[in-house]
Amino acid sequence: MRNALQLFFCFGVALALIGCGEEKPDKEEIKRTLVQAVPGYYSVDDVSIVAQANEGSKVEPVYKSRFNVTLSPREPLYDRADPIEGVAMVQVVRKPGDGVTLYGLASSTHRGESWSTALQFEQALPPGAPISAFGNGVHVLGSQEARDAVAKIVLARQAQEDAARQKILAIKNGLTGTWKGQYVCGQGEAAAEVVISDVSDTGNVRGTFHFFPIQGRKNVADGEFAVIGSVNPDLAVLNIQPGGWIRQPQGYFPIGFQAPYTPSATAMDGRLTNAPGCTTITLRKAG
What we know:
Blueprint: H1 2-22, H2 27-37, E1 42-54, E2 62-73, E3 77-84, E4 87-94, E5 100-111, E6 114-121, E7 138-140, H3 144-175, E8 177-185, E9 188-199, E10 204-212, E11 223-232, E12 237-247, E13 256-260, E14 267-273, E15 280-285
Parallel strand pairs: 4-7
Antiparallel strand pairs: 1-2, 2-5, 3-4, 5-6, 8-9, 8-15, 9-10, 10-11, 11-12, 12-13, 13-14, 14-15
């Protein structure tokens, strides 16, 4: 009797092993793993097993399954588009329900009463993510919100450009003309007459610098040279650089100057540049 019981136990174990060896991971098992593996904004619609083989043993089965899966977005998916006027844009690349098929391999190992499955895809998901993935400040290309955002930027830039043009116009009206005064160099104080003949829409300045002795003095010669420069409406500074000579006294070199300036100013007090030994210049609007 004891031998019969032993034989029955062994036979029962053999049946259990054979039964375990016949178990296979089905498509529902692979689908459960897929649901955890793919982004939550995709639904797993259909899974089919194309081929399947046990690469392990009956005792320790390792099933490799080649599968196809059809996924579809639960919501519209977007990708980056070129910005317009600095406004960040996204565009729809996949609509809800637009299916995409992926191919892959599943490797399933038996653990206790269930399977542990790892997936390997043969291609990546196509581009696309929910609008929330792009953060704040993005707009959908072609939407009314996008058009409004672009229009707001354009209007703001136009307003800035108009304001800058108005500043330049005011500077042009105030700066153009003749400025008379004095400057101080190594020879002492001398007279200066600066004529600003043109101020461009971008703030470039052209004119002449005439220097000569103050009445009753003979400490400097009489000469004249062209000047070029720029005026910065935001910094309210006039920069003048020397140009070519018109009348050059022997031994003299041209000078430039920098002075604060506002459109309503009728006087400029600045400092001389490109001029060793020279210091200040004072000018008053003469016409």
